[in-house]
Each structure stands twice: as structure tokens, then as C-alpha cells.
């Protein structure tokens, strides 16, 4: 265990990349030898990966291989699961997010998350967005907060649909709108990374297409990691893909290499539909 360190004093660490491709730039997130356990059961087994800043990274692999478990370890969401524990190291901009003294609420603002099932608060559309900036002290005035609400909804592609009904409940929106509201809520606290766990699996094809367009628009502004069981979706929205199998990353590469020219037999089997 490290001694408690204030955020700004934590030493940035530089380790050689395990997977960076020539265009990847410095890693936004580096996981090193990460294992995740539920009680005695090991769900993630010694995974190391660098997640680049400027691309969308897809995590693919058969159900139960550990994609959600690993994704949750990237913003310490597994902390909320009784019996779960994480070993190894996860660095955000070179700083260990599991060090003692880490402010987890602050971390989850920097590394936001969007879930499979849209989960707006049972509050107004306005409040869904305003809540985070308010508790994080990002604004001092009502007009500033109004501005954040508007720009977050704009960026999530929802503003035009809701600008005349900001007082309506977030839960009254359609599923696709609710998911964009959740993305706007993540954006409102000015995150650096957005983690998405099968964000379209509860949506119809039109709402799915809208979210996929949105992910493409957000690329470059935020590091984005998306778990998807749809290989078509991974091919459409991501530039980097990690293929998980039985708690390990079998292969990482450009999305086009993974889908058209995989090196590993297990990747080949998965993308050709032999299992999964
Ligand atoms: N809260 C939990 N408690 C116990 N085991 C879990 C829990 N969540 C997931 N698991 C187990 O961990 C493994 C990986 O699950 P998960 O990360 O959900 O996989 P994926 O997202 O790839 O479908 C599975 O064997 C699953 O049953
Ligand atoms: Mg999952």
C-alpha cells in the first residue's frame, strides 16, 4: 500500500507500453497485470493494456469473458460490488487510481460511465445534467450552470429534442433519448474518459445508429472505451479493439486488423462466429 498522497503530488509513472501502435500517442489509461476477483473466483487474469486518448477502443469477446468486470476496474466501479477485489495497477495519466488517498468521486467524474440500461435520475432533464456540476462545484452561478446544461445536451445531440421541456422528467424520454441524457450527464462534469458498457443493447436500431454517430462525434475529445457484443458495432465505431477470452486479452490491434487479419486462432474463431 502506498502512503496517502494528495492528487497533485502523486508521481507520474512511465512504463513501456505493452501494446501501443505507432499512432496511439501516450496512453490515457495503462493497466498492468490486473486481476479481478469475486471472492475466490478470478474473473480477470493478469491483463495489461494501454488505452489511447484519441481513439475509440472496443472490448469484444464472448459473454462472461470479463469485459464488464475489466471496464468497471478502470473507474473503480468494482469497489461497489461486495466481495470484488482488484490486483495490479491501473494508471490514469500515469497516476495509480487505486492508491490510498484517491478521491473516488472525483475519479468517476474524470472517468465517466454509461451503462447497458439507461439510468437517468428520477428528476427533471435539467437536474439530471445540473446535479454533477453542482456537487463538484464546477459553477458559481445559475447562468453558468444553464450554460453547462445546454452545452452538455448539445454535445450529446439531445438539445434540440428537449430544450422546450427541460423541466420534464428524464425518465419520460424514449430509451434512446435517455441514453443520450446519460451521456450528457457524464459529459457535464468535464470527463477525460467515457466508459460505455453495451450502451445500445437496450435500444432499437434507429436509436442505436444515433448513439453510434454520437460516439464518433465525441471521439478525440474524450478517450472512449466501449464494450459491445456486436462485432458490427465494434467495426463501425472503434479504431482499436481488444479481444477478451476467459478473463484475458488474447489480442489487441487496430479494429481493421482484428476483424480482417487477426493473428490469433481464438480471435479468428470468434470473429468468424465459431463461438460466442
Ligand atoms: N457481481 C459478480 N459477482 C460474482 N461473479 C460475477 C459478478 N459479475 C460478474 N461475475 C462473473 O465474472 C465473470 C465475468 O463476467 P462479466 O465481466 O460480466 O463478463 P462480460 O461482461 O464479458 O459478459 C463471469 O463468470 C461472471 O459470472
Ligand atoms: Mg458485460
UniProtKB/TrEMBL annotation:
Span of domain ABC transporter: 29-271
Keywords associated with the record: ATP-binding, Nucleotide-binding, Phosphate transport, Transport
Keyword Zinc (UniProt): no
Alphabetical list of PANTHER family matching this protein: ABC TRANSPORTER I FAMILY MEMBER 17 (PTHR43423)
Chain intervals for the UniProt region annotation (Disordered): 1-23
Record-linked InterPro entries: AAA+_ATPase, ABC_transporter-like_ATP-bd, ABC_transporter-like_CS, P-loop_NTPase, PstB-like
Signal peptide: none
Protein name stated in the entry: Phosphate ABC transporter ATP-binding protein PstB
Gene3D superfamilies (UniProt xref): P-loop containing nucleotide triphosphate hydrolases (3.40.50.300)
Amino acid at each position: 500500500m502506498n502512503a496517502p498522497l494528495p492528487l497533485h503530488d502523486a508521481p507520474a509513472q512511465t512504463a513501456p507500453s505493452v501494446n501501443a501502435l505507432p499512432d496511439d500517442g501516450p496512453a490515457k489509461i495503462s493497466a498492468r497485470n490486473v486481476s479481478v476477483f469475486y471472492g475466490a473466483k478470478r474473473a480477470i487474469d493478469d491483463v495489461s493494456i494501454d488505452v489511447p486518448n484519441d481513439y475509440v477502443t472496443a472490448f469484444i469477446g464472448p459473454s462472461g469473458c470479463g469485459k464488464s468486470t475489466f471496464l468497471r476496474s478502470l473507474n473503480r466501479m468494482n469497489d461497489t460490488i461486495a466481495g470484488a477485489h482488484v490486483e495490479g495497477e491501473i494508471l490514469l495519466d500515469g497516476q495509480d487510481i487505486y492508491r490510498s488517498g484517491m478521491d473516488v468521486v472525483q475519479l468517476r467524474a474524470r472517468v465517466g460511465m454509461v451503462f447497458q440500461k439507461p439510468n437517468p435520475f428520477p428528476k427533471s432533464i435539467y437536474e439530471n445534467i445540473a446535479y454533477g456540476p453542482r456537487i463538484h462545484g464546477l459553477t458559481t452561478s445559475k447562468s453558468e450552470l444553464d450554460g453547462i446544461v445546454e452545452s452538455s445536451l448539445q454535445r450529446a445531440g439531445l438539445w434540440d429534442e428537449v430544450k422546450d421541456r427541460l423541466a420534464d422528467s428524464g425518465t419520460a424520454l424514449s430509451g434512446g433519448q435517455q441514453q443520450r441524457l446519460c451521456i450528457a450527464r457524464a459529459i457535464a462534469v468535464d470527463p477525460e474518459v467515457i466508459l460505455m458498457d453495451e450502451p445500445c443493447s437496450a435500444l432499437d436500431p434507429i436509436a442505436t445508429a444515433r448513439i453510434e454517430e454520437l460516439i464518433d462525434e465525441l471521439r478525440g475529445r474524450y478517450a472512449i472505451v466501449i464494450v459491445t457484443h456486436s462485432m458490427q458495432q465494434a467495426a463501425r465505431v472503434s479504431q482499436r479493439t481488444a479481444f477478451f477470452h476467459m478473463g484475458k486479452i488474447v489480442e489487441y490491434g487496430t479494429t481493421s486488423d482484428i476483424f480482417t487479419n487477426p493473428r490469433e486462432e481464438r480471435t479468428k474463431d470468434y470473429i468468424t462466429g465459431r463461438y460466442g
